[in-house]
Design brief:
- The protein has 254 residues and is α+β, with helices and mostly antiparallel strands.
- It folds into two domains: 156 residues, CBS-domain; 81 residues, Histidine-containing Protein, Chain: A.
- Helices cover 31% and strands 22% of the residues.
- The chain is elongated, with a radius of gyration of 26 Å.
Length: 254
């Protein structure tokens, strides 16, 4: 299995939208439908992957074998116990359950008709698919042939360097203050009139909020500005109905 390209070479660092091709793992491990489950499980354990695309002789994706497909197994006593009502109303479903828990070949157990994406699928659409379909990985195809796979781990690898403050050029105090204020102005939920003071990269926030939940959000806005060393809030919450005033000083160093 090949590793992906260096994260600094990705389009995100050039201000462009990222697509599946930018984070996918190219040429992923695969299995065939007639492979044994023993072989597939050994591959998954040996390479520390939780799912494998199943391809035909032409390299087209015909299924996915995942950890979820192997949870209900007779060998470890986790198969679904049949009941008389299901046997009467849906014998075919019972038969399928039996194959799922006793099958010995990949094609007998795999999830067929898997959801696939292309290299140009945006990461936003990839995330939406994963959440809507409740799946952890998506095969990437080109002209129906498998060229890669995008998993949650690929997102983590792309995200990790973006969270490293050392990878971003720090701004000066005046620039930090301007950036925090402009960022708050862009947020529909942000209250008006938040005072921002910056000294040696340390941000102090003063002002009035009418919803306590905005406190953490305002702090996060400041924390995301390059060069910020710590954030301290002196925001005062005024409860809209009672007029009760509550001041909670918070924040922490980065």
């Amino acid at each position: 299995m090949k590793r992906m390209v260096a994260v600094r070479d990705l389009p995100l660092f050039k201000g462009l939208t990222m697509n599946a091709v930018d984070i996918m793992t190219p040429e992923p491990l695969t299995v065939r439908a007639d492979d044994t489950l023993y072989k597939a499980v050994q591959l998954m354990i040996g390479h520390r992957v939780s799912g494998l695309p199943v391809v035909d002789p032409d390299g087209r994706v015909i299924g996915m074998l995942t950890e979820g497909d192997l949870l209900e197994r007779a060998e470890i006593g986790t198969e679904i116990a049949p009941n008389w009502l299901l046997a009467f109303l849906a014998p075919g479903r019972l038969a399928r359950n039996f194959v799922q828990s006793h099958g010995r070949r990949v094609g007998e157990v795999m999830t067929d008709h898997p959801v696939c994406i292309t290299e140009t699928t945006s990461l936003e659409d990839v995330v939406m698919l994963m959440q809507r379909k409740r799946i952890k990985r998506l095969p990437v195809v080109r002209d129906e042939a498998l060229v890669g796979i995008v998993s949650r781990a690929d997102f983590l690898r792309a995200l990790a360097p973006l969270l490293d403050p050392q990878e971003t050029a720090a701004l000066g105090d005046a620039e930090i203050r301007e950036k925090v204020i402009s960022s708050l102005d862009e947020k529909a939920w942000a209250p008006i009139g938040i005072k921002v003071t910056v000294v040696d990269g340390r941000v102090d926030l003063d002002g009035i909020i009418s919803d306590e939940r905005t406190r953490d959000a305002i702090i996060v806005v400041a924390e995301n500005v390059a060069g910020v060393k710590s954030v301290k809030d002196h925001l005062v919450w005024i409860e809209p109905n009672s007029g009760l005033t509550v001041g909670i000083s918070g924040g922490s160093p980065l």
